[in-house]
Amino acid sequence: xxxxxxxxxxxxxxxxxxxxxxxxxxxxxxxxxxxxxxxxxxxxxxxxxxxxxxxxxxxxxxxxxxxxxxxxxxxxxxxxxxxxxxxxxxxxxxxxxxxxxxxxxxxxxxxxxxxxxxxxxxxxxxxxxxxxxxxxxxxxxxxxxxxxxxxxxxxxxxxxxxxxxxxxxxxxxxxxxxxxxxxxxxxxxxxxxxxxxxxxxxxxxxxxxxxxxxxxxxxxxxxxxxxxxxxxxxxxxxxxxxxxxxxxxxxxxxxxxxxxxxxxxxxxxxxxxxxxxxxxxxxxxxxxxxxxxxxxxxxxxxxxxxxxxxxxxxxxxxxxxxxxxxxxxxxxxxxxxxxxxxxxxxxxxxxxxxxxxxxxxxxxxxxxxxxxxxxxxxxxxxxxxxxxxxxxxxxxxxxxxxxxxxxxxxxxxxxxxxxxxxxxxxxxxxxxxxxx
Length: 436
Ligand SMILES: [Fe+2]
Known about the structure:
The protein is an alpha+beta fold. The chain has nine helices and twelve strands. It has helices at 8-26, 45-64, 73-78, 103-123, 126-159, 224-232, 244-253, 290-299, 307-317; strands spanning 182-185, 188-192, 208-212, 215-218, 261-264, 267-272, 275-278, 355-361, 387-390, 407-409, 418-419, 423-425.
C-alpha cells in the first residue's frame, strides 16, 4: 500500500472529510434501520460506522497514542471484522442481534476516536507522521470501502421490508437500450497494476507485464432490456449456457431474474435505493452474479473481459478529464446506475454505474507481498474462490476507484452493485455462444 507525503493539516482535513461523509450517508437512517442485518453478508449500518472507527483505534491509536487504552474493551471484540492477528471477534452472521451499543452510542465512540486522532496527528513531528501516514491513508480508503458497503447493505435491508422504503435519490426517466459499439483494442505486451506514487492497495502491486491478443470491448454495459430478452429466451432455464457451479446455484436458489427484480402481475419491478419501480429497459442490469454474467455472455455469443483486458482497455479508451475519472459514482447522488448516454467513441460507463465482472480469478500478481503484521490480512488472505470486478459503481465514493483497482466477490454474490460488460476476440470464451 503506497502513499504520497502529507502535512498534518492536510491529513486532519482529509480525515474530517471522510469521517463526516460516513455520517452523512447514515443520516437518513433511523436507529432501527441501522440495527438490522438482513442476511449474513450484510452488516448493520451502525456496525459499519463502528468498525471503521475501530480500524483507526486499532491500527493507529493503539500503537502510537501515549497511555493508550481502548474506548471500550469489548468494542475490540465486537467491531473486529476479520483480523486474526488482532484477536477473537464476534460472529459476523449475528451482528444484527447486537442491539447495544445503539446507533447513538456508536456516534459517541466515533466522536471520541475522532478527537484522539486529531490530537495525535497534531502532536507528531513530521518524521513520525511520515511513518504513520500510509496507515492513516489506508484508514481513509478502508472507510470509503465501507461507505459503499453501507449503501449496498442498507439496500438489501430495505428490500426486505414490505413497505419498500426509499433511501434517497430519484429514479431515471424511462429509456430504451441504444446500440452497442465495439471498441478495438490493440493487444501486445502491456503494463498492468498500480503505477506512480498515489495510494493504492497492496493487491494492485506490483506493476507487471501481461501479453494480450487483440480484442474488442463493448462500449457500454448490458441493459435491463437486453436482460429481459435473455430471460425470455430461457436464459435461466438452459443449462448449456451456464458454468456447472452456476447452474447448481440457479436450481438451488430458484434464480429466474436479477436479485432485486420482482414480478407483479406479469410486470417486472426492481427495488432500488430510489424506491421500487418498473424495470427500466435502458438502464444497466445490476445485482447479477458472476455466474449470471457469464451465462448471459455465452447466450450473446460473447465473453467477459479478463481483468487485464479491462485495465488496458480503459487506459486506452476510458473517459477522464485532466484530474478526474468521469462517471456515475456516488457523488452524483443517483444511488443507482444510469443509462449510457450517446456514443462517444470511448468506453461508456467505465467508471461508476456497476462494478463489472471479469473472467479473472482474484489471484496475487507476480511478486505480490502482503504488508507485515495484521494489516497484511487486508487483501491477500481472500485470494481464493473469488472473481475480480472493475470500475466502481454508483455507490462508490468519487476519488476511491482507479484503473488498477481490484474489487472481488465470490462468483455467486449478487448483493453487490455488479453488472456486465461484454468482450470479444482475444482470450477464449469458456463456451460457444448460442443466440443473439
Ligand atoms: Fe473493514
